[in-house]
Design a protein that fits this description.
- One of its GO terms (cellular component) is endomembrane system.
- It holds the Pfam family DUF1232.
- It is a single chain.
- This protein is mainly alpha-helical.
- It has one domain (about 30-150).
- The chain has helices spanning about 5-15, 30-40, 50-65, 75-85, 90-105, 120-130, 140-150.
- Helix 1 (about 5-15) crosses helix 3 and helix 2 (about 30-40) packs across helix 5.
Length: about 160
Amino acid sequence: MERPDQEGQAEELRDAPDSAEQPAAGNVEAEQLEEKDIQKWAGKIGDYNQQEKYVQEGFWGKVKRYASKVPFAREVVTLYYCATDPATPMKAKATAIGALAYWILPIDLIPDFVPVAGFADDATAVLLAYKALSSQITDEHRERAEQFFAINRDFKVITRT
């Protein structure tokens, strides 16, 4: 999976269609349970290669459309950078890709168009993956996500309190 630079991200975001269709470190039991749940959800759209392709094709379009509407947008973009980092271990990439693929999926456990509750299942998948990968998510991944939102200021990212 390619790692676009900041300029490339802005270009991908500009060209992206508006349609979204295109555990704490050290707690091994919790991490395994969370990864199992994430993989179950992500399994709805196929194997790792299918999920990776799905994320590549649909990620920036979904970000463009929903980043200002969900309180976990920073985590989504951070997971993307973790998943696309060549230094990230394959197992961690698979977990991140699975959660991102589920987030992109327009029809899931609770369809995204359902007011208020539509992103609850997506938030669960993303935040479980984020927590499970806390030891793999680097400062660089977080900084790149922050840079992305700084460059794309038209996204009014919701801040959780």
